[in-house]
Write a structure and sequence with these properties.
By secondary structure, the protein is α/β, with parallel strands linked by helices. The protein contains ten helices and eight strands. The protein binds SN-glycerol-1-phosphate.
């Protein structure tokens, strides 16, 4: 018996990228940007240095819409296409992987583990790579905070955030994601990112409310290793805000 199962292809790609510096993930909502429009955003984002295309949104995206976007994107870019799920209905075998994430601080057990029990056999049957991730929503939480019935972690409670994050790591989750909520007026505070980063040894993902280069810079300097942005491209396309964020990410890359 081997002691460990090897990690999947996309997870391996993430670790290889992380060895060279920070990773950027472009979140596209295929309900707002379907098929070819998603593919155009993805191509531009990858050209600017984004590493992964995440597909997701907070309203029930059908697996047909998800599948069509994944196919269109994969025709345009080699970067992995990963599902950022909000339920089992948006799973598609056209993607390369799914963030198999537990919404740690939800009051609704469906979002912590029960939906996963129903989705796991589907994920396995589809042959989708599952990336185990602890997802922690920080105030204000925005829509995911409401829909996810979350007891948000207050922005100043850095110790609570570190405790939740370490618990995720000790439970075997291989990534921790601090989420301020899509469209949040400001990202997760740097002090919290620092506290979490020094508590855990798995890679730290930060997202929600990142719209400018200086915001990205502050998070990277605080220890964020993967940055997720969505709204900035939904609202401004591949404009100045997105370019400035990618410039900060590229600045910290080796070579
Ligand atoms: C949301 O963290 C992501 O789940 C991205 O947030 O839309 O604010 O960039 P934004």
């Amino acid at each position: 018996m081997t002691a460990r199962r090897p990690v999947g292809r996309v997870e391996q790609y993430l670790y290889e990228r992380l060895d060279r510096g920070p990773v950027h993930l472009t979140l596209i909502d295929p309900d707002k940007s379907p098929g070819e429009r998603a593919a155009r955003i993805a191509r531009g984002a990858v050209e600017l240095g984004s590493d992964v295309i995440l597909l997701g949104g907070s309203t029930g995206i059908s697996h047909e819409v998800m599948g069509a976007a994944a196919v269109a994107i994969k025709r345009e870019v080699e970067a992995p296409v990963v599902i950022f799920p909000e339920g089992a209905t948006s799973l598609t075998s056209q993607a390369d992987a799914v963030l198999f994430m537990s919404l740690l601080n939800s009051r609704n057990l469906d979002l912590v583990i029960r939906t996963h029990a129903r989705a796991a056999p589907v994920v396995r049957r589809m042959g989708l790579e599952a990336i185990p991730l602890g997802y922690l929503v920080i105030a204000p939480g925005m829509r995911v905070g409401e829909v996810g019935q979350v007891d948000v972690v207050p922005r100043e409670d850095v110790e609570a955030a570190a405790g939740w994050s370490l618990a995720a790591e000790l439970l075997g989750m291989r990534f921790v994601y601090l989420e301020a909520g899509s469209g949040a007026p400001s990202p997760v505070p740097g002090s919290m990112v620092r506290a979490v980063r020094s508590a855990i040894s798995v890679p730290l993902v930060v997202g929600g409310g990142i719209r400018t280069g200086p915001e990205a810079r502050a998070l990277l300097d605080s220890g964020a290793q993967l940055l997720v942005t969505g709204t900035v491209t939904e609202e401004e396309g591949l404009g100045d805000g997105f370019r400035a964020i990618l410039e900060e990410v590229r600045r910290d890359r080796a070579g």
